[in-house]
Design goal:
binds pyridoxal-5'-phosphate, 394 residues, 43% helix, three-stranded antiparallel beta sheet, 14 strands, 2 domains, Aspartate Aminotransferase, domain 1, Aspartate Aminotransferase, domain 2
């Protein structure tokens, strides 16, 4: 490959672009993970992640991709043959359900059309039917990265409470944490699963469980085999800032920096920034005359927008045109929507002009790939950003 001038636009919805400050933080010698310097790092990242999850409870950090933390959430709280209620919001919910099956759990999978989030009433109905309380956990994806739909976790909590059902609430916010409002304690979540490479702006390689007291209590009697993923093994040494096995020290340097950056900007400002960019992106898509996959106005994701291709047009071919001509990677269609949907990532280390570059690449790509559309999406997004600037400046 010859040198390509300018930077690559990595506009997939995770991994997201890693900012320079984080790259510099990672670029340091690895230290003794049993020594005093590491202890400070351990304390810092564990406390920092409690603030990110908005929890006073335990946070466990794994050197693993998000999938590892999915597995950890299940094996620490459940026993073979347990029923788990899951909800088909998209590809990631489907994969989590498959993982549960392979572990010997019995998922009850509520079907969905991939265009809306979790219907809390459907969850409530299933729990009401379960008089014997054989369902041990409700597992939902907060921000479904395959569809650009965000589910209302507080509503799911209320549904479980209305049914007076003791099931644990397990939530995947692998692509939401650090970009969208999330409140582990306030929303009554028992286990939250997150990852490093999306809103937290780190390279892939770390994942997390935030754990409630109730989940911790469940782990004392849960019988699925676990060793590497065991919370007990982690939480013991974590109390003094250490880890039971070699941690991903350099990624933890990066994590400390990421938390510092998010807190300098202020989490609420970070969330508002993502909301603005999502709003401007939707204006562009609507102006192009293309259809947004998410059908519910109150469930649009702020970190990505999934766009349906007009019938007879391939998203694979379109994304190739964009990559070849503009050095930008867009997200592919996953699972059921493969070759039907492309995804625009607008998360992480991202500002107004990054968005404008991204949308310009999409609009030029649509023209080059001869995808039927109306011009003016980029201009509409500029107008949207300008309007929201005026609102915050007055
Ligand atoms: C990215 C993602 C995953 C998978 O995480 P990996 O790090 O690829 O294992 C799971 N769920 C959601 C919602 C995601 O966005």
């Amino acid at each position: 490959m010859t040198y390509q001038a300018g930077r690559h636009f990595l506009q997939i919805p995770g991994p997201s672009n890693v900012p320079d400050r984080i790259l510099r933080a990672i670029d340091r010698p690895t230290i003794d993970h049993r020594g005093p310097e590491f202890q400070h790092l351990g304390y810092d990242v564990l406390a920092g992640m409690q603030r990110m999850f908005k929890t006073k409870g335990a946070v466990v950090i794994y050197p693993a991709s998000g999938t590892g933390a999915w597995e950890a959430a299940l094996v620490n709280t459940l026993s073979a043959g347990d029923k788990v209620l899951m909800y088909e919001t998209g590809q990631f919910a489907t994969l989590w359900q498959k993982l549960a099956q392979r572990l010997g759990l019995q998922p009850v999978f509520i079907g969905g059309d991939w265009r809306r989030g979790v219907d809390a009433a459907a969850v409530e109905a299933k729990l009401n039917e379960d008089k014997a309380h054989t369902i041990k956990a409700v597992c939902v994806v907060h921000n479904e990265t395959s569809t650009g739909v965000t589910s209302k976790i507080a509503e799911v909590r209320k549904a479980i409470d209305r049914a007076k059902h003791p099931a644990l609430l397990l939530v995947d916010t692998i692509s939401g944490l650090g970009s969208m409002d999330y409140r582990h304690d306030e929303w009554g979540v028992d286990v939250t699963v997150a990852g490093s490479q999306k809103g937290l702006m780190l390279p892939p390689g770390l994942s997390f469980n935030a754990v409630s007291e109730k989940a911790l209590a469940a782990s004392k009697t849960a019988k699925l085999p676990r060793s590497y993923w065991s919370w007990d093994e982690m939480i013991g040494p974590n109390k003094t800032g250490f880890f039971p096995y070699t941690p991903a020290t350099n990624l933890l340097y990066g994590l400390r920096e990421a938390v510092a950056m998010l807190e300098e900007e202020g989490l609420d400002n970070v969330f508002k920034r993502h909301d603005r960019h999502a709003e401007a992106t939707r204006r562009a898509v609507q102006t192009w005359g293309l259809e947004i996959l998410c059908q519910n106005e109150t469930e649009h994701s702020s970190i990505l927008t999934a766009v349906l291709m007009p019938a007879g047009h391939s998203e694979v071919a379109f994304r190739k045109v964009v990559l070849d001509n503009f050095n930008m990677s867009l997200g592919s269609g996953l699972g059921k929507v493969a070759d039907k949907v492309f995804r625009i990532g607008h998360l992480g280390d991202f500002n107004d002009l990054t968005l404008m570059g991204t949308l310009a690449g999409v609009e030029m790509g649509l023209a080059l790939a001869k995808v039927p559309h109306q011009k003016g999406g980029v201009a509409a997004a500029m107008e949207s950003l300008k309007e929201s600037c005026l609102k915050t400046n007055t």
